[in-house]
Amino acid sequence: MNIKEKGCVKLIEDITYLDLIIVILGYLLLLGTSGWIVKYVLAKVSKKKYTEIAEQNVLDTGFVIGKCENLLILTFMLLEAYTALALIFAAKTIVRGEDIKKNSLYFLTGTMVNVTYSIIIGLVVKTLVDLV
Questions:
Q1: Does residue 76 lie within any of the structural domains?
Q2: Is residue 71 in a domain?
Q3: Which of 32, 75, 76, 130 could pair with 84 in a Cys bridge, judged by C-beta atoms 3.0 to 4.6 Å apart?
């Protein structure tokens, strides 16, 4: 019997405390470090300070969008909804299309780094949960 046949109640019963701790730590690690990773890579690529790359309102908006992106990607990875990952990237590109035209290096690099980092953390968390 696979997970989908078990239903939500049975799925919740199958989660151990260790699984829950691993997942929570995964979310905390991702949310706590993804901004630093993106800032570091953007600063290296552009050879400028992070605050010189974009305006403050763009940085604030990017921060919020990036954290939402992290949450969704890790959740989709844990649920094995891999096709949904493409929707995040497509939606973000559509919504931020005008910003991407103005500063494509900043937005595309930031998005790719954030998505890649989120997927890596998702793979690590998923592997740890599957091993336990």
A1: yes
A2: yes
A3: 76
Structure tokens at 121: 């953390």
Separation CA 36–CA 91 (nearest Å): 23
Question: Which residues are within 8 A (CB) of 45 and not within 5 positions of it... i.e. 6 or more apart?
Answer: 105, 109
Least confident span in 35-39, 66-70, 107-111: 107-111
CA–CA gap between residue 128 and residue 24 (Å, rounded) = 12
Structural domain span for residue 116: 32-131
Taken in order 41, 42, 47, 50, the sign of the CA dihedral is negative
Global pTM reads 0.80
Percent helix / strand / coil, the chain, rounded to 5: 90, 0, 10
**Dihedral sign from CA coordinates of 52, 57, 61, 64:** positive
